[in-house]
Amino acid sequence: VRFVESGGGEMQPGESLTLSCAAASGFTFSSHNMTWYRQAPGKEREWVATLISAGGGTNYADSVKGRVTISRDDAKNTVYLYMNNLKPEDTAVYYCNVPGWLIWGRGTQVTVSS
Question: 72 with 51: CB under 8 angstroms?
Answer without folding.
Answer: yes
